[in-house]
Amino acid sequence: MEGGAESTCFVRVSGVEDVSDHRSVALAALRLACEDIASGQLDAAERRLASIPAALRIELRMDEALARSSLALGRGDVRRALDAVSDALFEQPAHAGLRLHRGKVLAAMGRREEARADFRFAASERSLRGEAEHLLRALEDAAG
């Protein structure tokens, strides 16, 4: 049986109008993989991620990195989760969603100071502020 994982995917696709558009199909697969991760269907998420054509993975790199990292975190593989999100952050170090997710992974690893820095960075983006501040408070509460 698969374990659940909190989804941290930032794929914002409400629907796919034209299934002949490969990008739309890939985005839908990525969105569904995120939903699978959130519902604990980790094997299904892995299959969906594998179905995304390599040519489109470059375009969807940040979202796919979040999905792969969430998948690894759901499986309890924090090292792989950190590697996936860190690789993407190497390309886009100012991506607040990636920093928020990396903070969650670092917190799971007990690396509180690094997690705190990522949560503070993510809080600078208005759309992530509430979640980032909540995670900062939880981190402080856990520290005692």
Describe the structure.
The chain is mostly helical and 144 residues long. It is built from eight helices and no strands. The radius of gyration is 15 Å and the shape is globular.
User: What is the average per-residue confidence, as pLDDT, rounded to a whole number?
Assistant: 83
Tell me what portion of residues adopts beta-strand conformation: under 5%
Specify the structural class: mainly alpha
Task: Calculate Rg over CA atoms.
Answer: 15 Å
For the terminal residues, how far apart are their CA atoms?
34 Å
User: Helices and strands, in N-to-C order?
Assistant: HHHHHHHH
What low-confidence regions span 5 or more consecutive residues with pLDDT below 50?
A: 1-8, 10-20
**What count of helical segments does DSSP give?**
8
Biggest pleated-sheet summary: none
Number of strands: 0
Shape: globular
Helix content: over 70%
SSE order and pairing:
Elements: H1 22-38, H2 42-50, H3 54-59, H4 61-74, H5 78-91, H6 96-108, H7 112-123, H8 126-143
Keywords:
72% helix; single chain; globular; disordered N terminus; mainly alpha; 144 residues
The gist of it:
With 144 residues, this protein is mainly alpha-helical.
